[in-house]
Write a structure and sequence with these properties.
The chain is an alpha+beta fold. It contains six helices and twelve strands. The protein has one domain: tt1808, chain A (Alpha-Beta Complex). The longest helix is centred in the first third of the chain and has 20 residues.
């Protein structure tokens, strides 16, 4: 769920944004994000599973709690559900040290959005924006099958869409039920779509 608060510039948004709470800027409009408990459970499981993978591979990655992704071409910044950052690339991010904000695809190996009622943001706006700045891998985790039929099929069913950047354009693979999620960033990830979806309702 989300709530529109006010309109502002990206610079003023950075200065205004409180430490607590979840806020995004969509084309100059401040949006307060209000995730459900189910949403947060899935997010937590994904963070744990992904962290195991980059620790296992000894990669210079980490998952921040409140970092923003700025879209340079517009007055827009997102607060992703799971944002994987490459610590080695942050020296080239001018907004990182002061505002915990990144804007280059090279800094972001993987990004995950868990779908809520504002599903169009994930499938339309964020998909295009993440592709534009060159994020190599983008997951849309649609555990409640809220997305449009053009994205998750008919009849609609819970789906994880993994978008991989190929020649500057996203190519999608989709996973449902007992399908093992195939991640270009973490090819040894042993996780099924259903294991992710179950996390919305029961703790592992």
């Amino acid at each position: 769920m989300s709530q529109v608060l006010a309109q502002t510039t990206f610079e003023d948004f950075l200065e205004w944004k409180p430490e607590n709470g979840r806020y995004e800027l969509h084309n100059g409009v401040i949006i307060e994000m209000q995730p459900t408990g189910e949403h947060e459970r899935i997010k937590g499981v994904l963070i744990r599973k992904i962290a195991v993978e980059f620790d296992k591979l000894n990669l210079p990655y980490f998952i921040p709690n409140q970092a923003l992704v700025k879209i340079p071409s517009k007055q827009t910044s997102y607060l992703p559900d799971v944002l994987l950052l490459n610590n080695a690339a942050l020296a080239s991010e001018p907004l990182w040290n002061k505002f915990s904000t990144v804007q280059k695809g090279a800094s972001i190996p993987l990004i995950v959005e868990v779908v809520s009622t504002n599903w169009r943001d994930d499938y339309f706006a964020k998909l295009g924006d993440y592709e534009e700045i060159g994020i190599p891998e983008y997951w849309i985790v649609d555990y409640a099958a809220l997305g449009g039929r053009r994205f998750i099929g008919n009849p609609k069913q819970p789906t994880i869409s993994v978008y991989q950047l190929v020649d500057d354009e996203y190519q999608v693979s989709q996973f449902r039920g007992d399908d093992i999620i195939l991640s270009p960033t973490f090819p040894s990830l042993n996780l099924t779509a259903e294991q992710v979806f179950q996390a919305a309702f029961v703790m592992e």
